[in-house]
Design a protein that fits this description.
The complex is a heterodimer.
Chain A: E1 3-6, E2 11-14, E3 19-21, E4 23-26, E5 32-38, E6 44-50, E7 56-59, E8 62-65, E9 75-77, E10 86-93, E11 99-101, E12 105-110
Parallel strand pairs in A: 2-12
Antiparallel strand pairs in A: 1-4, 3-9, 5-6, 5-10, 7-8, 8-9, 10-11, 10-12
Chain B: E1 5-7, E2 10-13, E3 19-24, E4 31-37, E5 44-50, E6 53-56, E7 65-68, E8 75-79, E9 88-95, E10 103-104, E11 108-112
Parallel strand pairs in B: 2-11
Antiparallel strand pairs in B: 1-3, 3-8, 4-5, 4-9, 5-6, 7-8, 9-10, 9-11
The chains are: A mainly beta, B mainly beta.
Chain lengths: ~110, ~110
């Protein structure tokens, strides 16, 4: 079946620190992979995506590389800001466009 | 362009009462999704519509949950009767086509007491 495993949070970092949130997946076929972000009081927003092996998705300083050999899609950012505080969800989609989400990782960035 | 609109944003009801949630997708989006998000978990698909047809409702608990999208635009999700375990956030999303990017609404937070 399809599933996503995310590193458990919460994660607390100081401003300008390096961020890594781990994500691994199990899927039938060749899924597309996503990171969604949920800011306080707002809906889920697509942060970045990758549709095939070795693709790198990037947006707002965040990036993640689709690693088929390790079935991973880790999220990274070189220097986090207070405004990055949110809950981050790793997800995959199969051929039917049904999204499967991880449990989410809450990030808090302190000044 | 307006995003996905959901109402109400918050709802508190007593167990055994009925409740309904409403979703207005982005204009022109043919595919509509309802997700359930339990506390501390990621969203899980309940039902997916292509226009007015429910093409995937395999995860919808049909004994108490129902949904409709009569004119292929707005959708309503209903629970009758509600149970304590239904307390969660109910998310609506839409996409232009069946394989398109999904855009999410802010959700309705339901508390059943």
């Amino acid at each position: 079946g399809n599933s996503v495993t995310q590193m458990e949070g919460p994660v607390t970092l100081s401003e300008e620190a390096f961020l890594t949130i781990n994500c691994t997946y199990t899927a039938t076929g060749y899924p597309s992979l996503f990171w969604y972000v949920q800011y306080p009081g707002e809906g889920l927003q697509l942060l970045l995506k990758a549709t095939k092996a070795d693709d790198k998705g990037s947006n707002k300083g965040f990036e993640a590389t689709y690693r088929k050999e390790t079935t991973s899609f880790h999220l990274e950012k070189g220097s986090v800001q207070v405004s990055d505080s949110a809950v981050y969800f790793c997800a995959l989609v199969t051929g039917a466009n049904n999204l499967f989400f991880g449990t989410g990782t809450r990030l808090t960035v302190i000044p | 362009e307006a995003g996905v609109v959901q109402s109400p944003r918050y709802k508190i009801i007593e167990k055994k009462q009925p409740v309904a949630f409403w979703c207005n997708p982005i204009s022109g989006h043919n595919t509509l999704y309802w997700y359930l998000q339990n506390l501390g978990q990621g969203p899980e698909l309940l039902i997916r519509y292509e226009n007015e047809e429910a093409v995937d409702d395999s995860q919808l608990p049909k004994d108490r949950f129902s949904a409709e999208r009569l004119k292929g635009v707005d959708s309503t999700l209903k629970i009758q009767p509600a149970e304590l375990g239904d307390s969660a956030v109910y998310l609506c999303a839409s996409s232009l086509a069946w394989d398109g990017e999904q855009y999410f609404g802010p959700g309705t937070r339901l508390t059943v007491t």
